[in-house]
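In response to reviewer comment 3 from the previous cycle, which asked for concrete evidence that the modeling workflow produces usable outputs, we include below a single protein chain processed end to end. The sequence was submitted unchanged, and the resulting structure tokens are shown without manual editing.
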Amino acid sequence: MSITREELANMIDHTLLKTDATTAQVSALVEEAKELGAYSVCVSPSMLPIRDDLGDVLVATVVGFPSGNHTSAIKAAEASQASANGAHEVDMVINIGLLKEGRNADVQAEIAAVREATTGLLKVIIESAALTDDEIVAACEAAEAAGADFVKTSTGFHPSGGASVHAVELMARTVGGRLGIKASGGIRDYLAAQAMIDAGATRLGLSGSRAVLDGVS
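The workflow returned the following structure tokens.
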């Protein structure tokens, strides 16, 4: 399906999660997000609260990022502090080792702990490129059962890669429209973004948002 530039912009979490990011770069990110009409900015929790005028742009942050190997208590504490510091949305990374061990109930419990600590919308990063299809389904089912609002493909930091059309399609089929789908990781042009949307993505995590939007005909 075709999409207008404005519609596409309103699906974008304009993202800056580089380990060497500065406050000045976050301020520039906010200004660019406002100019582009992005839905939100996504920054590291240490950058909160954002002091800049956000206009209509929301604030998202990450929890347990990027490995997911933090304890549930630490992730919940991060989410609670981030919410208090102005995050409207929290993107948490699951412990994929638990998933690999078949400890799906523990994955669900961890997500539920972060859900309870988060005052806004919760997205669950499952690192889909590192998972089998059955594990992707299990992760999505755990996220839904724990009360999450979105499932998200990737951190963009895992060596296995980022979003794929196949993963987004499978995630979308699994949650059946009951949760949103955020595609993130390696989406660098309009055609890639459009493919993710056609596969079922309802939100996009992009660091190069302008380049993607410039591809809209």
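The chain has a mean pLDDT of 97. We consider this sufficient to address the reviewer's concern, and the full set will be provided in the supplementary archive.
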